[in-house]
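Need a sequence for this fold. Nothing fancy.
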C-alpha cells in the first residue's frame, strides 16, 4: 500500500478591489512559472477561474480547486488582498493552507505608482483575520517575496502540507496494553482525536488469533525469499524466517482489513512479555521491514511513538526508526574515537540510541538476524529470535517526539545532530549519537518535560519542517523543546550552576 500522501497545492491569487486586479493576475502567473522551472510542476495548480475579490469569488475558487483535486492551498496576496474573502477561503478549504505575498518590483507592472500592491501591509490584516476566525495557516518566516522567493516558500510548504494532510487521514492500530512498568509511554487518546487521527485498540489475543489463521499461507515462501535476499550473509537465524513471514502477512492483512475509510496507517505493536512465549519469536525484524515499506511500527505499544514515526516518515519521505535514548558513551570510547576527531562534542553531547532490532536494514551499516539478548536472560533463546542488529548508518539525524501529557496537553521536542562513524561495541540496532548541548537538553527538556525514553529518528535534518508541522497542528510554541545553544538558559536551568 502507498502510505504517504502526495499534495497538489492550489494557488489562488487574491486582490482588493481598489487595487489593480492585473497585479495579482500577472504576479500569480510569474509565481507559477517560477515554481515550474525550479520544482515539480505536478505539486501545484494555478486557479484560473478568478482573482478572489469577494465572497462569491471565494466560493468559485473553492469549487475550482476542489474539482482539480487540490488537497492543499496557497493563498497568494498579489496586492493588499481582501481580508474577509481570503480568510474565508482558508476557513472553508478542507486541508492545509499557507499564505504568502508579493514583494514590490519597480521594473514591472507600473512601478510604485500604479503598480504598488501593498501586500506587505495586507499580510498583517490577513494574519489578524485568521486569528479572529480561529483558522490555522502556515505563514513562512518572511512571507513576502519575489516570484522566485515565493516559489521557494511553497516548496518548503510541501512536506508540511503532506504531514498535516496525512494526520487527518491516519489511523493508528495498536495491539495489547503496554507492558508492565511502561507508564512513561502513556497515551491519552483525546489529543489523537483533536489532531484528526483515528485509533483502533486491539487485544494481542486478537492478533494471536489472526496470526494462527495465517499458518500455511501460500504467500509465506515468497516473503521468506525476500527476507533471505535482504539479510544476505546476515541471515543467522534461518529457522525463524517462516514464522516471521507469517507474522508480516498477518499485520499487512490486518492493515488492509481495518484501515476503513482512512488512507494511511501506523502500528503500535506489542513485543513482550507474553509475545515471545506465545508467538515463539520477537517481532523486531518484521517491524523494521514494515517501517521500511512506509508503515511505521512502534515498539511496546507506544502510540505517540508510532504517531511521531509517521510524521517523520511523511516529512522526510524516508524510513525512520524509534529508539531508546538509552545509555551513555563510555569515557574510553569517547577519548579514543570521538574527542578531537568529530567536531567539538563533549562527552555529555553524546549518547547511544538503541532498540532491540527494529531499524530498517537500509539504515544500518551492517546487519545480522539475532536473538534478543535482554529477553534471553530469563527466557529460552529460541523464543527470542527475530532481532535485526547492527550499527546505525552515520550521518545527519533529527531526534524528535510528539507526546500528549498525562493531562492531555500536546508537547513536542526536536533536536538535530548526527550519528557518528564510531563502532558501538554493543548489541541491538544501535548508534552513537551526538547532539550539541545534549546534556542540558536531556535535563531541561526531556526530564523536565516528562518525556518517555522513546524518540523518533529521521535520517537528515528536518527540524525546520517538524517545528512548523507541530505549530500548525496546535502545539503551543512554548511546549516545543529544542537543544538551546550554549549561553542560552533554559527556564528551569539554575542560573548559579
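Here you go.
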Amino acid at each position: 500500500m502507498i502510505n504517504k500522501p502526495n499534495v497538489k497545492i492550489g494557488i489562488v491569487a487574491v486582490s482588493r478591489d481598489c487595487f489593480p486586479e492585473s497585479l495579482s493576475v500577472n504576479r500569480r502567473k510569474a509565481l507559477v512559472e517560477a515554481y515550474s522551472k525550479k520544482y515539480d510542476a505536478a505539486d501545484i495548480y494555478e486557479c484560473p477561474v478568478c482573482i478572489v475579490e469577494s465572497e462569491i469569488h471565494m466560493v468559485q475558487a473553492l469549487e475550482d480547486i476542489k474539482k482539480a483535486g487540490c488537497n492543499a492551498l496557497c493563498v497568494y496576496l498579489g496586492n493588499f488582498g481582501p481580508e474577509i474573502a481570503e480568510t474565508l477561503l482558508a476557513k472553508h478549504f478542507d486541508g492545509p493552507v499557507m499564505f504568502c505575498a508579493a514583494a514590490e518590483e519597480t521594473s514591472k507592472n507600473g512601478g510604485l505608482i500604479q503598480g504598488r500592491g501593498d501586500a506587505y501591509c495586507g499580510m498583517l490584516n490577513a494574519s489578524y483575520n485568521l486569528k479572529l476566525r480561529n483558522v490555522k495557516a502556515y505563514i513562512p518566516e518572511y512571507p513576502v517575496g519575489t516570484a522566485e522567493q515565493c516559489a521557494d516558500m511553497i516548496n518548503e510548504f510541501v512536506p508540511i502540507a503532506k504531514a498535516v494532510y496525512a494526520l487527518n487521514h491516519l489511523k493508528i492500530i495498536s495491539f495489547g496494553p503496554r507492558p508492565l512498568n511502561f507508564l512513561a509511554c502513556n497515551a491519552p487518546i483525546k489529543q489523537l482525536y483533536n489532531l484528526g487521527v483515528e485509533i483502533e485498540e486491539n487485544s494481542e489475543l486478537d492478533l494471536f488469533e489472526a496470526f494462527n489463521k495465517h499458518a500455511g499461507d501460500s504467500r509465506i515462501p515468497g516473503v521468506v525469499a525476500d527476507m533471505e535476499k535482504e539479510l544476505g550473509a546476515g541471515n543467522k537465524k534461518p529457522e525463524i524466517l517462516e514464522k516471521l513471514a507469517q507474522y508480516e502477512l498477518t499485520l499487512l492483512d490486518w492493515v488492509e482489513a481495518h484501515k476503513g475509510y482512512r488512507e494511511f496507517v501506523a502500528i503500535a505493536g506489542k513485543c513482550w512479555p507474553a509475545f515471545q512465549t506465545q508467538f515463539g519469536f520477537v517481532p523486531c525484524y518484521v517491524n523494521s521491514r514494515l517501517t521500511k515499506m512506509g508503515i511505521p511500527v512502534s515498539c511496546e505499544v507506544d502510540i505517540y511513538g508510532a504517531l511521531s514515526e509517521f510524521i517523520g516518515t511523511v516529512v522526510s519521505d524516508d524510513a525512520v526508526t524509534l529508539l531508546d535514548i538509552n545509555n551513555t558513551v563510555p569515557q574510553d570510547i569517547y577519548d579514543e574515537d570521538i574527542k578531537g576527531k568529530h567536531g567539538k562534542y563533549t562527552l555529555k553531547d553524546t549518547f547511544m540510541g538503541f532498540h532491540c532490532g527494529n531499524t530498517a536494514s537500509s539504515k544500518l551499516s551492517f546487519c545480522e538476524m539475532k536473538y534478543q539478548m535482554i529477553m534471553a536472560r530469563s527466557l529460552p533463546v529460541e523464543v527470542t529470535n527475530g532481532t535485526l542488529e547492527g550499527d546505525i548508518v552515520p550521518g545527519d539525524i533529527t531526534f524528535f517526539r510528539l507526546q500528549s501529557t498525562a493531562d492531555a496537553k500536546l508537547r513536542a521536542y526536536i533536536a538535530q545532530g548526527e550519528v557518528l562513524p564510531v563502532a558501538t561495541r554493543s548489541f541491538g540496532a544501535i548508534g552513537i549519537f551526538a547532539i550539541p548541548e545534549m546534556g542540558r537538553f536531556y535535563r531541561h527538556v526531556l526530564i523536565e518535560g516528562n518525556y518517555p525514553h522513546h524518540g523518533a529518528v529521521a535520517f537528515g535534518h528536518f527540524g525546520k519542517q517538524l517545528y512548523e508541522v507541530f505549530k500548525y497542528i496546535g502545539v503551543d510554541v512554548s511546549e516545543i523543546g529544542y537543544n538551546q545553544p550554549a549561553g542560552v538558559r533554559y527556564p528551569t536551568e539554575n542560573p548559579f550552576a
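For context: The chain has 15 helices and 18 strands.
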